[in-house]
Amino acid sequence: MVLKMEDIKVIGIVGAGVMGHGIAQVAARTGYDVILVDISEDVLKKALEMIESGPFGLKRLVEKGKMTEEEARECMNRIKTSTSLESLKDADFVIEAVTENADLKKKIFAQLDKICKPEAIIASNTSAIMISDLATAVERKDKFIGMHWFNPAPVMKLIEVIRGALTSDETFNLTVELSKKFGKIPIEAGDGPGFFTTRFINSWLVEAVRLFEIGIGGIKEIDEMCKLAFGFPMGPFELMDLIGLDTALHIAEYLYDETSERHYAPPVTLKKLVMSGYIGRKPGSRGGWYDFYGIER
Ligand code: NAD
Q1: Which of 122, 170, 214, 280 has the fewest C-beta atoms under 10 angstroms from its C-beta?
Q2: What would be the CATH architecture of the domain defined by 197-289?
């Protein structure tokens, strides 16, 4: 059976962290029943709190007059949480948003492939891992696809849609349609390490660090130049502080490992800061670029 838009009633989400809870909020707000799965009860509890009253949560939307209190309550009621993948047996469309680790993701996909209905579609929110690679974990390769959201999920408009080599046209079209129903703008990118967005942003970030290393500009100056010259909302060093220097390093290492292209390789200074505990604005971090170099913001 080939799934159609009208058949989609239940959206399953695996991983209730930064991305998973935001995606759950969008799906529930669109009117879908949502089953949100994580290994940690604490994460699930926090996810529901964030959906209800986080900075991009439903309370804020009520305050801004974008939905009524009644609608927010109904939205919360549509979200069920679970620590078991088995609870996704009736899901029509499953979006995976667990930690960026290929082995972990593949283990989950192999389980989902057995648990989910044969017609269900499985999508990955991976930022960089090739979809054709992740698809090796499932039999239903035609119903497996990349659906790359951006943070914060309730706010950011783009969904980068990536077909694996064996993704069917039906799965691709349905994912595009569903993305639109979520109020997003889906754009197709080809399957390769980092797709378009992650590969592009990495080039920009590592180039900024290299230009700093050879003395072309200071950290604050490069951030300011990017904002003033190009109208970017944030400079590259500010962005790394936000997403985490560890995440920036991980992406650069992955892209370099996969492509062997020098210009993706992580700069030494980025490595040095991460190794010294400067991983950006994250719990347990010593700080980010501005803190390490003692620069006033
Ligand atoms: P996160 O660390 O906030 O959340 C990951 C969650 O996965 C955690 O809550 C963890 O408990 C859960 N998890 C781990 N193993 C699990 C398992 N076996 N079963 C169920 N849940 C499990 O990470 P995140 O930032 O939300 O990223 C998730 C995915 O989204 C990654 O692939 C990442 O690359 C991608 N992504 C992240 C961003 C971003 O800005 N954070 C943007 C786009 C895409």
Answers
A1: 214
A2: Orthogonal Bundle (1.10)
